[in-house]
Amino acid sequence: MNKITFAGIKGEVIEQSEHGNYLLVKLSNRISIVGTFSNQFHWQEIHESESGFKSFITYIGFNSDRIQQKYLELINEMGGYVRENEEKRAKMRVKGKFRYEMKVRNLNADHVLDLIATQI
């Protein structure tokens, strides 16, 4: 697999869109991001210089409502948000032992690093 550096972390590229606009990158067992180079989908612009992403969305895997709630609290403190229909969905982007994932918007790269370091 290809690797890409995101905020100092060597991530594993899991998937690339056929047009090369975005990459799915596994940063840890629980956390993945989808980063875009062109931002054709008009996500909130949050640049990350090492990867070259103009914007990215964070995905967090979980199995229990308790863990989900703790992450939702952290995300809220960081200024991120999860749309109502994206709080608990069958995993699609997180490649790990998790049944569910949440799709998180508006986090910067430092926030993602803090989530990776969090041991819940």
Please, could you describe this protein's structure?
- The chain is α+β, with helices and mostly antiparallel strands and about 120 residues long.
- It has one domain (about 5-120).
- It is about 20% helix and about 30% strand.
- The protein has a 7-stranded antiparallel β-sheet with strand order 1-2-3-4-5-7-6, with helices on one face.
- The protein is globular.
- The relative contact order is 0.20.
- The mean pLDDT is about 95.
Please state the overall shape, judged from the principal axes of the Cα atoms. Answer: globular
**In total, how many domains does the architecture comprise?**
1
Q: Provide the low-confidence segments as ranges.
A: none
Order of strands across the biggest sheet? 1-2-3-4-5-7-6
Please trace the helix and strand order, writing H or E for each element.
Answer: EEEEEHEEH
Largest sheet: 7 strands, antiparallel
Give me the secondary-structure category. Answer: alpha+beta
Count the strands?
Answer: 7
- Specify the number of helices: 2
Keywords: Plasmid
Based on the model shown, name its key terms.
7-stranded antiparallel β-sheet; plasmid; 32% strand; alpha+beta; 7 strands; 120 residues
Describe the structure in brief:
With 120 residues, this protein is an alpha+beta fold.
Strand-helix topology:
Elements (H helix, E strand, L loop, with lengths): L2 E4 L2 E8 L5 E5 L4 E6 L18 E8 L2 H14 L10 E2 L9 E5 L4 H9 L3
Antiparallel strand pairs: 1-2, 2-3, 3-4, 4-5, 5-7, 6-7
